[in-house]
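Please check the following for our workbook:

***
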Amino acid sequence: MGFTCGIVGLPNVGKSTLFNALTATAAAEAANYPFCTIEPNVGRVGVPDERLDTLARIGKSAKTVPTFLDFADIAGLVRGASKGEGLGNQFLGHIREVNAIIHVLRCFEDENVTHVENRIDPIADADTVETELMLADLESLEKRLDATAKKAKQGDKESKERLALMEPAIAALRAGKPARTVTVSADDRKAFDGLQLLTSKPVLYVCNVEEGEAATGNAHTEKVARWAREQGAASVVISAKIEAEVAQIQDAAEKMEFLGALGLRETGLAQIVRAGYGLLDLITYFTVGPKEARAWTIARGTLAPQAAGVIHTDFEKGFIRAETIAFDDYVAGNGEAGAREKGKLRLEGKTYEVQDGDVLLFRFNV
C-alpha cells in the first residue's frame, strides 16, 4: 500500500530544494529557473517515530525498519496551466496520481531568486495554483456532464449516483471553491474519489522561509496560517535551506545540536511527514521480533486481515487471528511476555479494526 504526497508550487519557491532535503538525495535538480524539474522525481522517506526505537530496545531487535511515505517533486506551475501553458498538462497529470498535495509557498525575500510574477505574495501564489486546479476540474466535469445526465435520465443507476456527486462539485467549483469543500458521505467517498478531481485532494501549505525565521515565522507565514485555517487546511513553517544542511549531518546528536542552536526542536521533515500522515488519515502498527522491529502504514479503519496483507498477501488470504498488544501495554509489560502475564494480549479476529500503535503478530494458514 503506497501513499504519495506531491510537492507543488510556482517555480522558484524552493520545491526541489525541499525535495532534495526530504529525501537526502540530489535526484531533483534545484536551479534558479522555471521547469528545472521536468518529470516528477519520487523519493521514499522514512517516517520518524520514537515508538519504533522503544519497541526495538524492549524486544531486543537486531534492527529497526521504519514505515515510509513517498514524495513526488512535480514541475512548477504557471498561470494558464489549465489551458496548457508552461508544462500545464504534465503538471496536472502528475498531480492526479498523488494522494495528497504539499503546496510550497515562498515566504522569503531574496532579490537573487526570481519570482515568476515578480512579487512575493504567498496567498496570491496559492490562489494561482488553486485556481488552475479548479479550472481543470471544472472543465473535466463539464465535459462528462451531458453524457452522464443523459444516461441518468435513461434510468442508468450508476450514472444517477455519479451525477448526484458531480452536480454539487460543479456548483462549488463555479463558486470558486475547491471540490474538497463538498460534503460527501462515507458511503459515497470511494465514488467521489473516482471522479479524480485535483481539488478534492487534501492540502498542506508549507511556508518556506529564510534560515533566521524558521523558528519564529514572519508576516507572510502568519497570513498563510490564517488563510489555511479558513480553508480548513493546515500549514507548517520550514526553511528548505536548513533542511538541506540537516540532511548532510549523519550523527543524530550533532543534528539535534544544530537544530537547537537555531531554536528548533525537530526537523521540517518530521513536521511535514506527521502532517502528511494526518492529511491522508494514516496510522502505524508494529511488528516486533529478534530480527527486526518494523513499522507499517495503513489507512485508519483498516481491518486486521487487510492490515496483514500489507506485509504479504498470503497473510490476508490465510488470516486466522491477530495477537494484539497496545503500544503502552507492551511498554508497561516490558515486552510480549509481560503484557501476556498482565492479560493485555488480545486475540482479535477478522472484524478487528487495527488501532494506531498496535503491536501485532498475525496467525495465518495457506
